[in-house]
Structure formats: structure tokens, C-alpha cells
């Protein structure tokens, strides 16, 4: 089969979906499909990766980061609000239901290497990508090395989270509205807190959850984030604890961060606990910088990307 001409990723995705109107595909299935359809176009990109799996991961990430542009023309639709997000060409008659996209075989590592589990620190930049692209949050990593260590390592474990973030409100508001909100002392930001774990299971679930409770006591929203959640009992325990304490749960997709999903929404606290925030700022330089960046946004209504985690 001759592949249709398509220069951009958006055009390649659209052409792939048009060939199967009404069928729904995950981003990874699309990545495999266009890799087969356009081997020449993607040869240079493929050569830059040690394995086929890493190459496909990159395509999946690009599809996720560009999904808003991909659907802009109206030729591609997605199941927004559902994870994993599914893409399809909205063919006539598709309203009555869609056939699932074909199950495509998993692609083995070209070198035959066994997949290695990611370290927790490798999850932080993936979470930053998801937060920026899907929730418009500007995040900052809180490093242990930037702590005063006056409380000892275990004391810091229960004091500050792995990632904090600012959600700017009203960046496009008229100047008079901004002045009114500021004068009234109303919020122009929401502050978020994230405790990250590689895996949640029966043995660590309660400690991890209450670590998130402790570390997010200052924020409007607190979340526990995990790449892997093992066991139905674990999820049931999380549902119960979340209903009691308001902490949310995010499952991080390590292959396609933009396809991560909020399994349990956090319950909003209407106001930041500034006394608790001051306590954390006194103990950690990164958190102090985070608060300074929030202050700069209040003063200037401007966000400098260099102040926040880099998102590719």
C-alpha cells in the first residue's frame, strides 16, 4: 500500500485515521501505524534512537503534545476526558458507536534488552510535561539537597512534596479586572502539590498517602502520583482515604505523559495556608524560589518559562 503524502505529524496522523473511519486508536497504535506507513520520512528520526521502542515513545509523546493542533481542523476527533485518549476520524454514521482500533503487537526492544524500571526521579520531568500540556500548570521540582536538613532526612520527608505547581488565573483579563481582584485580595493563582511514587501497592499505600496529606497541607490541591498501581485492594483503599482527606490520585503514563489520567480528583481547599507555606519555605530553598516566582506573577502578570521546569 502506498502511503499518502504527508509532510507534518498532523498530516500523517490524519491520513492514518482517514484510512479507518470511525475506528478509535490509542496514540501508541497511531505511532506504530505511521511508522509503517512513512518509513522513509521517519528514517532520520528513527536513526537517533538506540531502540525501536524509544523511537515509538518519542512519536507517542509528540502526538500527545500536539493533540490540540491535530484536532483543530475537524478531521480528527478525540475522546476528551477519557484516558487513555482515543483518536478517530469522525466518519458519517459513527455516532452510533465506534469499532475499536486493531490490536497491534507490542514492539520489542530492538536490542533485545529487558525493560528497566524507571527510578522515581525519572518521573518528575514526565509529570511536568503532563501538568503543563493538560492542566496549564507551571511546576517546580523541590530538591532534597536544597533543604536545611535541620529536621533530619525523615523530617523533610513529611514536610515538602516532590513537585509543586502554580495555576495562573486570568492572564488574559483586562487590567482593571486584575487590579480589582488584587485589591479585593481574591486569588489570581491556585497552588498545587504532588507527591510522586514509582509504584503504589499494599505495603506502601498508607504511608505514601499520608505523606501526600502532610506535604500538601499548605496547597489548594494535593495529589499523590504513581506510574504503577498494583492490586484492586490498593485502589479501594485509595478511594476511601481520598474521600476522607481530599487528596487526589494521578496515574502517570511513562510512555505518553499527556495520556496520564486523574483517577481521583483532589478536593479544593479555598485558601492557601500561608503559615504552613512559610514553614516549608524556611526549610527548603527550592520552595522559597517557588513562592518568589508566584509573587512575581502577582506583581507583573508575567510568567518566565526559565523560572519553571523545562517542558519539551
- The gyration radius over C-alpha positions equals 22 Å
- N- to C-terminal distance: 34 Å
Helix content: 25-40%
* Overall average residue pLDDT: 82
What oligomeric arrangement do these chains adopt? single chain
How many beta-strand elements? Answer: 9
β-strand percent reads 5-15%
Structural class by sheet pairing and helices: alpha+beta
Largest sheet: 6 strands, mixed
In sequence order, what are the helices and strands, one letter per element? HEHHHHEEHEHEHEHEHEEHH
Unreliable runs: 92-115
Shape: globular
Strand order of the largest sheet: 4-5-6-7-8-9
Q: Total helix count? A: 12
What does this structure look like?
- The chain is of the alpha+beta class and 312 residues long.
- It has helices spanning 9-18, 27-37, 43-47, 52-65, 67-70, 123-135, 152-157, 175-184, 205-215, 232-245, 274-283, 285-300; strands at 25-26, 77-78, 86-88, 138-141, 163-168, 189-200, 221-229, 248-251, 261-264.
- Strands 4-5-6-7-8-9 form a six-stranded mixed beta sheet, with helices on both faces.
- α1 (9-18) crosses α2 (27-37).
- The model is unreliable at 92-115 (pLDDT under 50).
Amino acid at each position: 500500500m502506498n502511503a499518502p503524502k504527508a509532510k507534518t505529524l498532523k498530516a500523517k496522523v490524519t491520513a492514518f485515521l482517514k484510512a479507518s473511519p470511525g475506528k478509535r486508536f490509542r496514540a501508541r497504535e497511531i505511532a506504530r501505524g505511521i511508522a509503517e506507513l512513512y518509513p522513509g520520512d521517519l528514517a532520520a528520526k528513527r536513526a537517533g534512537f538506540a531502540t525501536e521502542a524509544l523511537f515509538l515513545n518519542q512519536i507517542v509523546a509528540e502526538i500527545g503534545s500536539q493533540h490540540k493542533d491535530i484536532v483543530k481542523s475537524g478531521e480528527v476527533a478525540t475522546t476528551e476526558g477519557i484516558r487513555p485518549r482515543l483518536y478517530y476520524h469522525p466518519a458519517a454514521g459513527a455516532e452510533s458507536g465506534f469499532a475499536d482500533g486493531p490490536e497491534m503487537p507490542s514492539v520489542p526492544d530492538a536490542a533485545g534488552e529487558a525493560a528497566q524500571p524507571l527510578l522515581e526521579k525519572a518521573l518528575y520531568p514526565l509529570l511536568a510535561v503532563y501538568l503543563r500540556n493538560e492542566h496549564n500548570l507551571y511546576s517546580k521540582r523541590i530538591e532534597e539537597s536544597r533543604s536545611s536538613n535541620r529536621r533530619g532526612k525523615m523530617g523533610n520527608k513529611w514536610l515538602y512534596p516532590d513537585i509543586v505547581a502554580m495555576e495562573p488565573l486570568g492572564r488574559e483579563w483586562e487590567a482593571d479586572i486584575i487590579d480589582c481582584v488584587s485589591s479585593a485580595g481574591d486569588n489570581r493563582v491556585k497552588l498545587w502539590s504532588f507527591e510522586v511514587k514509582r509504584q503504589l501497592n499494599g505495603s506502601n499505600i498508607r504511608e505514601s498517602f499520608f505523606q501526600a496529606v502532610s506535604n500538601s497541607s499548605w496547597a489548594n490541591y494535593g495529589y499523590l502520583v504513581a506510574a504503577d498501581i498494583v492490586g484492586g485492594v490498593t485502589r479501594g483503599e485509595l478511594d476511601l482515604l481520598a474521600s476522607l482527606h481530599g487528596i487526589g490520585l494521578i496515574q502517570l503514563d511513562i510512555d505518553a505523559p499527556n495520556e496520564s489520567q486523574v483517577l481521583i480528583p483532589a478536593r479544593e481547599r479555598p485558601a492557601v495556608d500561608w503559615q504552613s507555606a512559610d514553614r516549608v519555605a524556611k526549610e527548603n530553598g527550592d520552595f522559597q524560589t517557588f513562592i518568589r516566582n508566584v509573587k512575581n506573577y502577582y506583581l507583573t502578570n508575567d510568567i518566565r518559562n526559565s523560572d519553571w521546569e523545562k517542558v519539551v
